Amino acid sequence: MSMAMMELFDWLSREVPAFMFTRRGLARARSYLALAGCEVGEKVLVHGPLDLERHGRVVVGRESVFVGGPFSTALHVRRGASLIIGAKCYFNYGVQLDVHQSVRMGDRCMFGSYVRIQDAPGRPVILGADVWVAHGAVINPGVTLGDGAVVSAGSVVNTDVPAGMLAIGNPARLMSQRLCSSGGSHV
Length: 187
Fold this sequence. Notes:
This protein is of the alpha/beta class and 187 residues long. It is 13% helix and 32% strand.
């Protein structure tokens, strides 16, 4: 066992209460180690490999989850940039966040596997609350997704998506999530 690992276990035995050595407690401890140097809310879980390149500010809201899988989730935050993740957000495996200036996510956002989000200097990305981005979708620089917006699988979003709307296709087109017309008949 390496000296660094021995020092870590010594520190854990001194500083961490006994209840932390339960299965759930060890998962939380592993999560805080994976997100070292970030501002992390309580009950955040990292269940798989996380590629964290942190040169700016990273805030992860309480009860957010990063799921493990065949590919790691990548959080690359450049110098002077800021990544703000709201509470109770869910990231499937293979998600890539490439932050050059600012990416902000509201509470309860969900991301399918292989989602890619990137901003650019002067073109931040903003996601409202309760946003769902499905498998393989790409959110490009300068895009704002309103509260409750949904991005379908494989879509490439280049323009803003208003609250409650569905973005579908490459390039993404906007559609209503409403299943009934105003007259009450099914569409």
